[in-house]
Amino acid sequence: xxxxxxxxxxxxxxxxxxxxxxxxxxxxxxxxxxxxxxxxxxxxxxxxxxxxxxxxxxxxxxxxxxxxx
Length: 69
Hints:
62% of the residues lie in helices and 0% in strands. It has four helices and no strands. Helix 2 (18-29) packs across helix 4 (49-58).
């Protein structure tokens, strides 16, 4: 699963739209996020890890790393 698919899936589960997320990211970070910019980052695979962490956090999730066996 790609980052885009992960985020789209989480957005759907939490009843968020890309528009909602762009607004929340802008509030949380103080940076400008438009729907177009966020969509392009997802499509192009250029979303930074910090942005990914913020999105996941806004949706009420956390990222955890588990050592492979």
